[in-house]
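Run: sequence + guanosine-5'-diphosphate -> complex structure.
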Amino acid sequence: MRIVALAGGIGGARFLQGLKAAVPDADLTVIVNTGDDISLYGLRICPDLDTVMYTLGGGIDTERGWGRRDETFVVKEELEAYGGPLSWFGLGARDLATHLHRKHLLLAGLSLTEVTAELCRRWQPGATVLPMTDQQAETHVLVDDEDRPGRRKAIHFQEWWIKHRAALPAHGIVLVTEGTPEPAPGVLDAIEAADVVLLPPSNPVVSIGTVLQVKGIRDALGDKKVVGLSPIIGGAPVRGMADACLTAIGVETSAQAVGRHYGSELLDGWLVDTQDEGATVPGVEVRAVPLLMTDVQASAAMARAALDLAGV
Ligand code: GDP
Ligand code: CA
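>> structure
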């Protein structure tokens, strides 16, 4: 069976771990959000690509859900000692080696797709991991400009999410890019060849929503069996601040509202948690199953339920 999944970081990666356990022989391609990418110290940091790669490759810090196991933050501490302005970003020393190696390969002229494949040679994630695009396309958030009352400014998503813990009211979320980003090589081919496309319980706005902005992806999903899983349970995100993102785009924080936001043009099936039983999405088959990824078995059961709903 050929499966394509779109993914952000933690929610996507944990689900994919379960999916691999549920169907170990499936041919899996993951199209990963790169809107969260940020350049720091001249390095290209790709949080979602790395979370997927480390999680599937066994290198993730399972408690934190991001970054490397057995991590040390000595470099971050040293940077803080200089009073550098970027110290809010959780740059681990082991993780830094990934960013340095990525930079080295990018400088040598490899595309992000090629670099990702090269990094995956070490981690062996058991899936083809593709960035959504090789182009620069970074998510920014419109917030009030405290220096110019009544005016707004755009700040990088990571600054809003990590430095401000998504507490600054967001008036909008935009992908800053030159034109519409082109899909990375292999992305549309993988979708075309897929028997089923899964939308893990990733952030619907800044993870899945961003991947869907890449040229041709939404159209390519039109004739595919697509099943999504809700990241919202009982009116709140399971983890993180996706509610702030949903509010920014005018969508209520509920499993039903997110399913309706995706809508029947995209979805064939929508899985909600048993707490949200009774949710409806016009034109989409909705089922309620436990959606808490407490361990790999629980995530695997969710993956089976998603494949079941897709009828594959
Ligand atoms: P990020 O890029 O690291 O923020 O990760 P994703 O976008 O892939 O996933 C974030 C989303 O995962 C959040 O909105 C969470 O609500 C959701 N999430 C995390 N753990 C669980 C879980 O156990 N069950 C469900 N249904 N959603 C979860
Ligand atoms: Ca992310």
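>> summary
The pocket of guanosine-5'-diphosphate (ligand 1) is lined by residues 7-12, 48, 51, 201-203, 207, 230-231, 233, 237-240, 242, 291-293 (CB under 6 Å). The mean pLDDT is 97.
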